[in-house]
Amino acid sequence: MSSVNVQRNVFHKVPPRLRGWVLPVLILAVWWAVVASGASDSPLLVSPLAVWQRGVGQVVSGELWVALSASLWRMAWGFGIGSSIGLAVGALLGWSRWAERLAGPTFHTLKQISLFAWIPMLSMWFGLGDAAKIAFVAMAAFFPVVLNTLEGLRSVPREYLEVARVYEFSVWQTLRRVVAPAAAPSLFTGIQLSLIYSWLATLGAEYLLASGKGIGNTLIDGREHFWMDLVLFGVVVVGLVGFALNALLAALEKRLLAWRDSTIARY
Predict the structure, then answer these.
(1) Which residue range(s) make up the domain with 167?
(2) Average pLDDT value over all residues in the chain
(3) Do residues 246 and 192 lie in contact, with contact meaning Cβ atoms separated by under 8 Å?
(4) Could you tell me if residue 6 is inside a domain?
(5) Residue 143 sits in a domain of what CATH number?
(6) Where on the phi/psi map is residue 76: left (φ > 0), alpha (ψ -120 to 50), or beta?
(7) Fewest 10 Å CB contacts: which of 50, 87, 154, 204?
């Protein structure tokens, strides 16, 4: 039996729910082995135990919760503001051809500008505090919601709208019973991307507008003091939070869209 087949057989023996952990565990094992064997004495390669101890210290002292709550607070405000405005603008552009002709070219021009190019302007308008960071996060959340809302509304099959006209649905009934169920997958995609971009933008804002508490500032502290264990711990926290946010929204989408097909079929 070839080595490839052996690897496949070993992999398939792992329960499906645990297969996603194979690579992280393998990386951790290799990391631990390299440090333990003394193959590298670089201060940049600290042991997993040192990262664990630093994490325990951050949790016990409460520093992690202070930093994490500050970052999540900024992300929540920025995501809420940006996605709400994005839904309204996307719905307007997607529902009104006149609005799309009037404002569409401007929007499609602005979306080409790098998000980080706005930081100098935001810092001049709002300073380096939370207001600038929230505005930056809101901009990150805004564009994916607009694009996917616009795409979702434009992709609603004409047959559905014709059925709504035949049954003499009002505008509100058409939106609620026909357009919203058909466009829901695209809307959720936009919200999911918006949430991911909001978390990344939160870290970017904290890193570039360095003022106050936050996970981004924790990473900065680790870099400035050359505490590699703190930097790695911060990276792990960032990844876990991003994974949790994505999993939460995916579960919410699965639950809320369960009724979509039956609703469309009924009407």
Answers:
(1) 48-266
(2) 80
(3) yes
(4) no
(5) 1.10.3720.10
(6) alpha
(7) 154
